[in-house]
Amino acid sequence: MLNKFPLWKYILLCFVVVVSFLYAAPNLYGEDPAVQISATRGAKIDQQTFEKINALLKDNNIAVKNSKLDNGQILVRLSSGQDQLIARDVIKKELKDGFITALNLAPATPAWLSAIGASPIKLGLDLRGGVHFLMEVDMDEAIKKSQVQMVQDLRADLREQKIRFRGIRESKKTNGVILRFVSEEMLDKAEEYLKPLNPGYLFSNEQKNNEFVLKINITEKKLHSIKENALQQNLGILRNRVNELGVAEPLVQRQGSDRIVVELPGIQDTARAKEILGATATLEFHAVDTKTDINDALSGRLPASSIIQKTREGRPVVIQKRIILMGNHIVDARSSTDEYGRAQVSISLDSQGGSKMSRFTKRNIGKPMATLFIEYLPSGKKKANGKAIIEKRYEIANVATIQAQLGRSFRITGLDNPAEAHNLALLLRAGALIAPIQIVEERTIGPSLGAQNIKDGLKAMAYGLFAVCLFMAIYYRKFGLIANCVLLFNIIMLVAVMSMIPGATLTLPGIAGIVLTVGMAVDANVLIFERIRDELRAGKSVQRAINEGYANAFSTIADANVTTFITAVILFAVGTGSIKGFAVTLMLGIATSMFTSIVGTRAIVNALWGGRNDIKKLSI
Asked: Looking at residues 453-467, what average pLDDT do you find?
C-alpha cells in the first residue's frame, strides 16, 4: 500500500526521538560555578583535607551546593559567581603552597542522566570563557640536548668496542660532535663502526696538531626531524599534563613549526592556569658519586666528572655528570605499593632506553642512582632576537639503590608515602619535556563575554527559526506545520549528537553552522513539497503525488547535501580553530537534516494521510 510505513520503522523513529531528547536534555541544566582543588608535587589531598575545606566554607557562611572528593581532587559547587570568587580566596589563603585552587564551571547534569552517559555539549573558549596560551618551544635547547645525548651515546659505544679516544665534545658551530683520537687507526675503526649506527649525520676527518679528528655533523634533514620530534613530544606531554590535572575539555594543538596553542575552557584564573602548565620540566637519571665525601665536595674538593645537586628538602647529593638516561625514553609510569605496602613507582621505557638502562645497571648492582628533576623557568631577560632566556632549576627527585639488572621495566622505591609516589609518577608520565617551552601570548575570556556570545548566537538562531517557520506555515499550511515540527526536532537531534561525540566542541562559528543547517533542512522540505504540488497539478491522485514527490525529490536533495558535505569535510581538514568548529556543526547538521527531512516528515505524512483513498485535496 502506498505511503504506509511498517510498524518497526515507527518504533525505530520513536527510539531516535527519545534518545535525542535524553542526550540533549543535559544542556537545559547549565553549569555551576565551582572551585577545583588539586595537589601539586609534594602535597596530598585526602579525606582530612576534604573535611577541612568543607568546615572552612561553612565557617565563612559560603553556601555550598555540593562538594566531592574524587581521584585526589576536590570539586566544590557553589550557588553564584560571587560565592565562587570568595570561596577561592578563602581556600587559597588557608591551603597556601602545595595546592592549586582554580575557578571552574561544572555541569549541573542530574545523576540519572549522567548514569546513561548524557552530558552537556562542550563549549569552546569563545562561548564558555577561559584562558588561551600561545607557547613557544625552545628549539635551540632541543638541539643542544640532542648533542649532549649523542656525546653520551658515542662515549658508551666507543668504550664498549674498546676504541681508544682522547676526547669528545659538542660542536657549537655545526650542531654536531667532535671526536679526537691518538692514532689514525683508532679514527678509522671508530668511523667504520659509527657510520651505520648514525644515519642522518655527515662524517669527515682531518689531522690537526698531532691529533686525528673525526667530525660528525647533523644534516638539515636530521635537524628538521629533531625539531619536529621536540614539538610533537611536547604536544603529547602538555596534553597529558592538562588531562592529569583535571582541566575539562582542553585544546592543545600545534601552530607553525615551533609553537603550541593551549586553550582551557572554564578556567578563569590565569595565574592558576599558568601553574598547571608552567612546570615545564624534564628528567635525567645519574649515577651517585659514592667515592666523593659530601663534606669535601661542599668545601670545593669536587672531581671534574661530578656535580652537587640538592633534594627538595635541601640535602646535597653528589652525582656524576654523565647522563644514564633522559626522561624522553619513558613511555609510562604508575604509582603502586610493593609486597610490604611501601610506596613505589613502576616505570616502562622504550626499546632504546631499555638497552641503555640494562647496560648501566648490569655493571652497577648495589650502587645508588639518582633521578634528577629539571624545571625550566623564565629569567625575565631576553636574547638579541627577542626570545626570552630560560633558566634551569635542578632538584633530586629520588635516590634509589639498584637491586638487579634493569631492562625496559623497573621500579623506583624509597619514597616517603603514596602521595609522593603518585606525584612522581605524574611527573615521569607528563613532565619529560624534550625542550623547554615558554608562554609568549596569553588571553583571558571572561564567562560574561562567553555568556553574551551564547545569548547573541541563540538570539540570531531564534530570529532565523521564527522567520523560516512563519514562512513555511503560511506558504505550505499543514505540510508547513509538519516541516516546522521536524525542523525543531532536527535542532534537538543535532545538539544530542554533538553532546554524545567525544571531542566535539561548539563555538560561536558553530552556532552559525547550526543556523545554516536550519535553512538547509527547510530547503529539502521545500523541494519535496514543490514536487508533490507538481504531481497534483499533473492530475495524479493524492497518494501517488505524495509517493512520487518524495521519491523524485530525493536525488536533488542528495546532490545538494553531498556537495555541501564535501565542502565541510575540506574545511575541517585544512581549517583550524573557529573554521573547524563551523565545519563540524555543518557536517553533523547535514546528516541530521537529511534524516529528519526525508524520514521524519515522511513518517508524519504517512501517519496522517497514508493509505487513505478518500482524500481528494491536500493542505499544501
From this structure: 85
